[in-house]
Write a structure and sequence with these properties.
By secondary structure, the protein is α/β, with parallel strands linked by helices. 40% of the residues lie in helices and 18% in strands. It has two domains: 1-103 and 259-351, 3-Layer(aba) Sandwich (Isopropylmalate Dehydrogenase); 130-252, Rossmann fold (3-Layer(aba) Sandwich), CATH 3.40.50.2300. The chain has helices at 14-32, 45-51, 57-64, 89-99, 123-126, 162-177, 193-206, 219-228, 240-250, 292-304, 309-324, 338-348; strands at 3-10, 36-40, 68-73, 104-110, 130-136, 148-149, 154-155, 182-187, 213-218, 235-238, 261-265, 272-275. Strands 2-1-3-12-11-4-5-10-8-9 form a ten-stranded mixed β-sheet, with helices on both faces. Strands 6-7 form a two-stranded antiparallel sheet. Strand 11 (261-265) and strand 12 form a beta hairpin. Helix 1 (14-32) packs parallel to helix 12, helix 10 (292-304) runs antiparallel to helix 11 (309-324) and helix 11 (309-324) crosses helix 12 (338-348). The model has no long low-confidence stretch (mean pLDDT 97). It binds nicotinamide-adenine-dinucleotide, 3-isopropylmalic acid (IPM) and manganese (II) ion. Nicotinamide-adenine-dinucleotide binds at residues 13, 17, 73-76, 90, 93, 257-258, 274, 277-283, 289-290, 293, 329, 331. Manganese (II) ion is lined by residues 244, 248. Catalyzes the oxidation of 3-carboxy-2-hydroxy-4-methylpentanoate (3-isopropylmalate) to 3-carboxy-4-methyl-2-oxopentanoate. The product decarboxylates to 4-methyl-2 oxopentanoate.
């Protein structure tokens, strides 16, 4: 059956890496017989240009009616006029995640052998690193009220309910059951009330998964251990803000944000796939962006939304084969352009 995909290229390098990933998907689909239709919509800064808001109503409606969503990246450079919009690109992204109830964000961090020499971390430390960060995505300090930005004082509210913690914890434990059966729950329970509730609730959920080992870790020491002993981690379960920060930190292990995809899910609704990085205004429009993060986001979509495992494996293998040959962009110390990497991946797929 044809799968209908809503495509949100967004801003900065978003459209460049999206074009690359769609070309790869189309090349792979040609020989597999799978059918896809694509519907492009304005989102982020592009949404503001088209309709005055980061998430135009028409874009949301299309997202609610499709089989999966692919998102490039959103956001302008510091000082962009979009920061003054009635709804900024970032607010548009948060609104989309909330509207679709995308409470679980899966961020796999693996270091394939091809990247071992390119990692700034010593090979003996990083070899075999394969973890999944399960980030709660629609609560916590990102969404809590009251919040206020005054000229002399500002505040945000971090709030979590037991129900919100339980549902994300169940996802993390279920994922751990399919892998190394180890969950590291990351919090700041020595200080924060929300973290104390988080820890207690995660312990309750853990009782349903007796085969899984649960370890609690404070976020500050976790940040240190991610680079010091990355192979110790299997599944990291954490709240919204900590997950945002730790996943960018973990990108240092493979050497760049440019190879990291993510998947966001709800309870049975449409899922969204996007790189964990942003719109990289510093390299936008120059054919320099690493398209791997977007291609691997497509791989996650094929596996997690469509169960098209063969097609997913083919694309993933082609992406890694190109990396193995040293055809990599500047973020990985190479000289290849976005288009050269894309053409090389398509060639591997027989396109
Ligand atoms: P960023 O992730 O855009 O960039 C951080 C660094 O990583 C930059 O040096 C950039 O060049 C590099 N980088 C990121 N992706 C790359 C790729 N695919 N290939 C090569 N290099 C890559 O973070 P930032 O600069 O702090 O934020 C820029 C904008 O992106 C801001 O407006 C921010 O709000 C937005 N943002 C959006 C998302 C999203 O769309 N999900 C995520 C993070 C940041
Ligand atoms: C991410 C981004 C977003 C977040 C921003 C752009 C709102 O950093 O997807 O990691 O903080 O969740
Ligand atoms: Mn982030």
């Amino acid at each position: 059956m044809t799968k209908h995909i809503v495509v949100l290229p967004g801003d900065g390098i978003g459209p460049e890496i999206m074009k690359a990933a769609i070309a790869v998907l189309q090349a792979a689909a040609k020989t597999s017989g799978e059918q896809f239709t694509f519907e492009e919509k304005a989102f982020g800064g592009a949404g503001i240009e088209a309709a005055g808001v980061g998430l135009p109503a028409e874009t949301l409606a299309a997202c609610q009616a499709c089989d999966a969503i692919l998102l490039g990246a959103i956001g302008g450079p510091a000082g962009s006029p979009w920061e003054k919009a009635q709804q900024t690109p970032e607010q548009g992204l948060l609104a989309l995640r909330k509207a679709l109830n995308l409470f679980v964000n899966i961020r796999p961090i693996a270091v394939p052998d091809a990247l071992l020499p390119l990692s700034p971390v010593k090979e003996k430390i990083v070899k075999g690193c394969d973890m999944i960060i399960v980030r709660e995505l629609i609560s916590g300090i990102y969404f809590g009220t009251p919040r206020e930005l005054g000229s002399m004082e500002a505040y945000d509210t971090c709030r979590y309910t037991v129900a919100e913690i339980k549902r994300i914890a169940h996802r993390a434990f279920a994922i751990a059951m399919t892998r190394g059966k180890h969950v590291t729950s990351v919090d700041k329970a020595n200080v924060l009330a929300t973290s104390k509730l988080w820890r207690k609730t995660v312990e309750e959920v853990a009782r349903d998964y007796p085969e899984v080992t649960l370890v609690h870790q404070l976020v500050d020491s976790c940040a240190m251990r991610i680079v010091q002993q990355p192979t110790e981690f299997d599944v990291i379960l954490t709240e919204n803000l900590f997950g945002d920060i730790l996943s960018d930190e973990a990108s240092v292990l493979p050497g760049t944000l440019g190879v990291l995809p993510s998947a966001s899910h709800s309870e049975g609704g449409v899922s969204l796939y996007e790189p964990i990085h942003g719109s990289a205004p510093d390299i936008a429009g120059q054919n320099l962006a690493n398209p791997t993060s977007m291609m691997l986001s497509v791989v996650l979509m094929l596996r997690q939304s469509f169960e098209m495992h063969e097609l997913a494996d083919q694309i993933e293998a082609a992406v890694y084969a190109v990396m193995n040959e040293g055809i990599v962009t500047g973020d990985l110390g190479g000289k290849a352009t976005t288009s050269e990497v894309t053409e090389a991946v398509i060639a591997k797929l027989g396109g």
